[in-house]
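HUMAN: Would you supply a protein with fold tokens?

ASSISTANT:
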Amino acid sequence: MRNYQQEFEKRVEFIKKILDKSGTEGIVYGNSGGKDSALVGILCKAACDNTIGIIMPCTSKRNYGIDMEDAKTVAGRYNIETRIIDLSPVKEAFISQVTSAVELNQKALFNIAPRIRMMTLYAIAAAENRLVAGTGNRSEAYVGYFTKWGDGAHDFNPIADLTVREIYEFLRYLDAPGCIIEKAPSAGLFDGQTDESEMGITYNTLDEYLLGGSVSEEDALVIQKMHELSEHKRKGIIVYQP
């Protein structure tokens, strides 16, 4: 059986070393009220008392409801400082200005909130000498289920190697609030959205594939295609090589 106590200690030590080398004074992360941000918050708080979680609702009703309440629950359980920044007016102003020059499609619109959140976290990090902690997991990274230069941007990520299945196992070990473990994962990009419905595949199937389990040929093809199409998200910036 996986030793999550040992995992916890190693990840906390990993964060402490990064902070020490960087010369920064704290950590900031986006507290979305989801599974990944919950685990990152717990680990970061254990490594650095000066950790703050930023709740950033942005137009979706879910952001102002269940996600915000769950984010507060996690922060309260683990004594993590919380700040709330309403980004809806920022997104609306941004769209208003950009649409004067171009018509935005659905894909462009959905990526705005994650990128505004990234800007917010880095503004706080710069103002208070903090590092930005990433909250992406292995499963989502493999199929590119993240926004490039949005939630994919960070200074370090203590859970990037964990599949969604492992994230939940870790949270259960840490006795995380049931509201986090029991609700369907959602990026909260729009009302009614869930990660699995948007991807067209379940996390269980994706994790089976990543962990060497058995999946149908159809599901394997879906995963492989998503992986190939999102390769640019996992690579560095393409630069000219003389």
Notes: Residues 166 and 190 are 26 Å apart (CA to CA).
